[in-house]
Design goal:
The complex is a heterodimer of chains A (238) and B (300).
Chain A: E1 2-11, E2 14-24, E3 29-34, H1 40-47, E4 55-62, E5 65-68, H2 74-80, E6 82-85, H3 97-104, H4 111-124, H5 126-129, H6 141-153, E7 159-163, H7 171-186, E8 190-195, H8 198-204, E9 207-212, E10 215-221, H9 222-227, H10 229-235
Parallel strand pairs in A: 3-8, 3-9, 6-7, 7-8
Antiparallel strand pairs in A: 1-2, 1-4, 4-5, 9-10
Helix pairs in contact in A: 3-6, 6-7
Chain B: H1 2-32, H2 39-57, H3 65-91, H4 99-121, E1 126-127, E2 138-140, E3 143-145, H5 147-169, H6 171-181, H7 183-188, H8 193-218, E4 221-222, H9 228-241, H10 246-266, H11 272-286
Antiparallel strand pairs in B: 1-4, 2-3
Helix pairs in contact in B: 1-5, 1-6, 1-8, 1-9, 1-10, 2-3, 2-4, 2-8, 2-9, 3-8, 5-6, 5-8, 6-8, 9-10, 9-11, 10-11
Classes of the chains: A alpha/beta (238), B mainly alpha (300).
């Protein structure tokens, strides 16, 4: 469904991400692991074109068509069915919760579908329901993450890119968010998510990719990675 | 008392003209963080388009409400188009450039329009045809009220309400607010940010164009440099109200209009401009965020 070929990113002359390749199959749940500054977020931002890659290309296959999305504008990529929840949730803190959700539905130009999706999102996150008119800035960190996920669902994505969804949340909230990610995946969405929380991430993901200093150093199934001495040492406390 | 009411009405009508211009400033600042110094010239163009179209259609011999609305619409449309062209060809190529470059470009566009105006319209003042001039005066007690002022006030109020509706109750308005919060985030929603920015310029320019016609109607002497002072005053009003806030722009404009009229009426007629810029200095010293400046709450 997604094929990344020799993608690299430079910040000025500094190489932030060395050329890397990997592909995602439809229906997969894959995590990108790595420490701070390893290039995980950069990789997601290069896929959704928030950053301009300095080499390589990204091909998205949907409905039997291969589309080179690395040539496209970010908003056109969203319209194809790739939603990116950026690091720090990326909410419009000046808008209400309802308005945030409604903006998420921008690519779906059908008010009936929008209503169905809204009902679904509010069923998944009942906490948002009582606060639809409240400003998004008034929510707690966990609620903001719920809103960010809910808003991404409003676009009916085929592929969901999540950047550190558990960042800064309480343990119970992390549990809940991971549960929701697994549920979203079960509903048929392909998910690629960045995490530092390797143990929990590998617990729900099928496969993982490990980045270190801007390089893709390791990839494998979750079982392989959990058993790998390299991962154990770096992320699971030996 | 009579005098007070007269100054009050004058202040409101001057203030509402500033408001129509100021809204464009604040909208554009919202989406681009750019003070579009060419905005006053759009106002000037609005007046000239109004004048030429009135002459072309032959309005102005007799008072015609329909004619006024036609001229107003035409002027708004042309100004929206000019706003689009300015954004598309002067500002969009500089989207990733440092902000100061864009600001200097805005000053350049402003001068370009002033001198192109002088070239094509002539630098001598022109008479704006009185397309709509309600007869007589309304007398309330000893106060004589000019119905035209109320009419102009009413139209600008309607335009501001329409704008409020557009910004707060339509999908495009929501997209405008999203873009003004953060371009990247808006594009992650699938919002075509460049299109939203064009649209914002067009809306702001249309309002400035309407202000041009309405000012022509009340002060029928127009010339190519007429946009400079109202443009600066509207800018002061925006700073007073808090840059980026629509409510702030309107309230700031009304305060400025009233303050000017009262100072001129009761104290020193020559201090009109000094007062405005005095207010600008004061607000920058005391409350640089302005009256309705935004404070953002961010939680981690």
């Amino acid at each position: 469904m997604l094929k990344i070929e020799n993608l690299s990113v430079h910040y000025g002359i500094v190489e932030a991400l060395s050329p890397f390749s990997f592909s995602l199959k439809q229906g997969e749940l894959v995590t990108i692991l790595g420490a701070n500054g390893a290039g995980k977020s950069t990789a997601l931002r290069a896929i959704s074109k928030l950053l301009k890659p300095s080499s390589g290309r990204v091909i998205f296959s949907s409905g039997g068509q291969d589309i080179t999305i690395s040539d496209m504008q970010p908003h056109d990529i969203v319209a194809l069915g790739i939603s990116h929840v950026p690091e720090g949730r990326g909410l419009f803190l000046n808008l209400s919760i309802f308005e945030n959700l409604d903006l998420g539905a921008w690519p779906v130009r059908d008010s009936k579908k929008n209503q169905e999706d809204l009902d679904l999102v509010l069923k998944i996150f009942p906490r948002l329901k009582e606060r639809l008119k409240q400003n998004a800035g008034t929510l707690s960190g966990g609620e903001q993450q719920m809103l960010a996920l809910g808003r991404a669902l409003m676009a009916r994505p085929k592929l969901l890119l999540l950047d550190e969804p558990s960042l800064g949340l309480s343990p119970q909230m992390v549990e809940l968010i991971f549960q929701v990610i697994a549920d979203i995946h079960k509903m048929g969405t392909t998910v690629l998510f960045v995490e530092q929380n390797a143990y929990q991430a590998l617990h729900i993901a099928h496969r993982g990719l490990v980045f270190e200093n801007g390089k893709l150093v390791l990839s494998g199934t979750s079982q392989e990675l959990l058993a790998s001495p390299q991962v154990q040492e770096a992320y699971l406390g030996g | 008392m009579t005098e007070f009411i007269q100054h009050l009405i004058n202040g409101l009508s001057v203030g509402s003209m500033y408001a129509l211009i100021a809204i464009g400033y604040t909208l554009v600042f919202g989406v681009l963080q750019l003070i579009n110094f060419a905005h006053g010239e759009i106002f000037m163009l609005g007046a000239f388009v109004g004048m030429y179209s009135a002459l072309f259609f032959g309005f102005g011999q007799t008072s015609s409400l329909l004619g006024l609305f036609l001229v107003l619409t035409l002027s708004m449309l042309v100004c929206a188009g000019v706003g689009y062209v300015i954004e598309r060809f002067a500002y969009r190529p500089l989207r990733k450039a440092p902000r100061i470059n864009v600001l200097i470009t805005a000053v350049g566009v402003s001068m370009f329009l002033q001198f192109t105006g002088q070239l094509f319209f002539g630098s001598d003042p022109k008479f704006f045809p009185q397309i709509y001039s309600p007869a007589g005066y309304w007398s309330v007690g000893s106060v004589q009220l000019n119905p035209l002022q109320f009419f102009v006030l009413g139209i600008s109020l309607c335009l501001m309400m329409a704008l409020h509706r557009l910004v707060f109750h339509t999908r495009m308005g929501r997209a405008m607010r999203a873009v003004s919060f953060n371009h990247d985030l808006a594009s992650l929603m699938g919002i075509p940010t460049n299109r939203v920015i064009s649209y914002t310029f067009m809306v702001g320019s249309a309002l400035a164009g309407a202000a041009g016609v309405l000012v022509g109607l009340t002060y029928p002497k127009i010339e190519p440099l007429m946009g400079v002072m109202p443009g600066l005053k509207a800018f002061v009003a925006v700073v007073l109200g808090g840059v980026g806030s629509i409510l702030g722009a309107v309230v700031g404009s009304l305060i400025l209009g009233l303050a000017e009229e009262f100072v001129v009426g009761y104290w020193a007629p020559t201090y009109r401009d000094a007062l405005s810029f005095g207010i600008l200095i004061l607000i920058l010293l005391i409350k640089p965020r302005g009256l309705f400046g935004k404070i953002q709450i961010e939680k981690v």
